[in-house]
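Input for the complex:
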Amino acid sequence: DAKTTQPPSMDCAEGRAANLPCNHSTISGNEYVYWYRQIHSQGPQYIIHGLKNNETNEMASLIITEDRKSSTLILPHATLRDTAVYYCIVRAIYNQGGKLIFGQGTELSVKP
Amino acid sequence: EAQVTQNPRYLITVTGKKLTVTCSQNMNHEYMSWYRQDPGLGLRQIYYSMNVEVTDKGDVPEGYKVSRKEKRNFPLILESPSPNQTSLYFCASSLNGPYEQYFGPGTRLTVT
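Predicted:
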């Protein structure tokens, strides 16, 4: 599975959009981009995933560049409750095995 | 309510005393997994199960055992716990692979 690179930390003002980048320059054609988040010491929470088209759900939007080497998770109107560590994971669907590797993630602090 | 439950939530034990952490899901998911989380090391996968009677090692399986005799349950067994297994443990499940996983609330284990 491709490796991802994320900034260790970011700040965002409450009510503004939070844009979390992820670099995955070695991604291959059958690998999806997944995002999870973990609020302090709680279990991680699935947010969104995508292959090459932009995706949106009730929590966030995922923008994947045309060459698929990077992506951005967008929280359109960040609240204090969005303060968490955000993990970007790249993984092929239906490959062999059930491993999922979480990196260090980005610690997002939403400030009043 | 769809959920993953873990018991106990907190446990303090002594070196060498066998223990079991239970995990149960009510979503009829085929895939289940155990992770441990340590400061500076992030989330690491211990074991996973693609279905009943099918289990496989994750990245840090040493010192742990699992079983999957029924679809809903995936207990984590520490036959002879040691202090280096002091950690925060998460169980997770998903429909058919390590993709959109639901995580439990965590079990904080301390081995003295």
